[in-house]
User: Fold this.
Amino acid sequence: MTVADAYREIVLAHARAPHHLGRLAHASVRAEGLNALCGDRLAIDLLIRDDTIVDFGFEAEASALTLAATSVMGDLILDRSLDEVRRLGESALEQMTAATPGLDPALGDFRHFESIRGYPNRIKTVTLPWATLLGALAGRERTSTDIDPRGAPPPERSRKP
Amino acid sequence: MSVDRWRADFPILAREVHGKPLVYFDNANTAQKPRAVIEAVSEFYTRHNANVARAVHTLGEEATTLYEAARAKLAAFLGITDPHELVLSSGTTAAINLVAHGYLRPRLQAGDEILVTAMEHHANIVPWQIVAAATGAVLKVAPVHDDGTLDLPALLALIGPRTKMVAVVHVSNVLGTINPVAEIAKATRATGVPLLVDGSQAVPHFPVDVPALGCDFYAFTGHKLFGPTGTGALWGKGELLEAMQPVIGGGEMIESVSFEGTVFAPPPRRFEAGTPNIAGFVGLGAAVDYLGTLDLVAARAHEHALGEALRAGLAAMPGVRLIGEAPERVAVASFVVEGVHATDLAVLLDLEGVAVRSGQHCAHPLMQRYGVGATARASLAFYNTAEEVERFFLALDKVRRMF
Assistant:
């Protein structure tokens, strides 16, 4: 696979017309994702009933890679139990960051991003939605992929002089 | 063409990226190194490696001679008559931090002001914020006009009785704007406020006679000047350096040490604790020598003309917005393309062999000023060619058609 594969038509189609674009009026959980390296900002909303994700919405100021990855993620997580979603999320982050990736067929179109593995800066654009989602499920309002592509709390703003 | 001769001096320019010849347009991030620099570093480790200023054996003397020769070459390159006024550092960031902590902090009181501009690199913002937070001083910011020029009257009006330091970038790494530092220096001299100039993006592009600018401190980095990374320097007026406290203590920076007290060495050694990047500075000295072998006037005219062609081409493209169009500028062009995020642009241009920077360029406040999350930036050096500019535009066209 080459980097161009990450921009194949199916990915660009997601980026041009992302699924699940827009905030939810009634969300159970809202969270923010930040990737300062690229200046990306992502806001995600989840509607959860009976431990199942029944709706997902997002807004982003981000690259096509981030938009497409978030769109694909939304397709994957709808109507899945939180346990399943956590497992998928771990699998997606593993695919992008582990030394020997497992290509999980359950990841669907997300596997197209496989080709940007090994680019330590770029992978943060596509781990951002999953890191933000897993952070949100762990009760974290803001997640950053700046230091760790798998996601971490953003550093606190230093106190004003 | 002279540019072919110049290119031949830079081995990396012959490499391919994704099967395409490299077009390196990220020179404001770091410049490539001529063979003379690479060989000087290699030669140092192969034949002369030893620590500086301590050993009296042959290698130690050779290393010291080479290191001090690099200081002298850099000083001469920048019009500095006394090389002892040049403190060698790991780069601009360390140089500015040295002034912030070694000069300014002991002189700051709550309510004092430090004046910067809205177009500073984080390296000329954060050190001042840190000393301000520790002392209760306040950071003031001079605004930038829409076209990327500094609002000079506004800056001058912000210099007041509480101003204890003015810190201004000579050339913006994002906008390419050349700031009127000599005019600013006139005002700071009249009021007795020290002026620090961040010259990182200036010294690679045009001749700088540092003392003639009239500033008090001048910081710059070696790796943008075709030298190794981890090299740079702070020039300071002799009496200011003399009055400065060391920030890092250790070996090399002392006159004498006892457990009752330590006498610090005079500048510049006082500020060069520990073993420096000796090979790096030998390489930087070689970079200065190399630049001396070029017709720099011709090289820089070529670079400037290419930069103007690049800007003109970008300005003519529908849906492209140039960020920064100051009349006084270097060959750096930041831009946003409607419908294409800067990260995608940079990744996809890279597939065509074209290296540009994307993101916020260590200048978050400036990005906010222009209301953009990220920009792409093409920055040139004298070894770039008209053909590369053409290839850049072909690649840019191809990327735009994808979206």
Observations:
- Chain B touches chain A at residues 18, 129, 132-133, 136-139, 340-344, 347-348, 350-351, 358-360, 367, 373-374, 402-403 (CB under 8 Å).
- The two ends of chain B are 38 Å apart (CA to CA).
